[in-house]
Prior knowledge:
The chain is mostly beta strands. It has one domain (3-75). The protein has one helix and eight strands. It has one helix at 60-65; strands spanning 3-8, 15-17, 24-26, 33-37, 45-49, 54-57, 67-68, 74-75. The strands form two sheets. It has a five-stranded antiparallel β-sheet with strand order 7-2-1-6-8. It has a three-stranded antiparallel β-sheet with strand order 3-4-5, with no helix packed on it. Strand 3 and strand 4 form a beta hairpin. The longest helix has 6 residues, at 60-65. It is globular, with a radius of gyration of 12 Å. The two termini are 20 Å apart. Bound molecules: zinc ion (ZN). The site of zinc ion has 7 residues, from loops.
Amino acid sequence: xxxxxxxxxxxxxxxxxxxxxxxxxxxxxxxxxxxxxxxxxxxxxxxxxxxxxxxxxxxxxxxxxxxxxxxxxxxxxxx
Length: 79
Ligand SMILES: [Zn+2]
């Protein structure tokens, strides 16, 4: 399965993918920061740094959807 960069929501453990999620935008308030807006019904909305993204192994279908539920991804540990 392919590997994509994503950021995890601390509240519901969904992973959002930078290249395909409609919930990730560039922050308007801080340079080099992104804004994550999680999906309903999760209320999470927070800014994060590009460096806090991690590689995840996911299926193409999950990537196209933009986010993965906790059971649908596998984190790829580096180093
Ligand atoms: Zn969430």
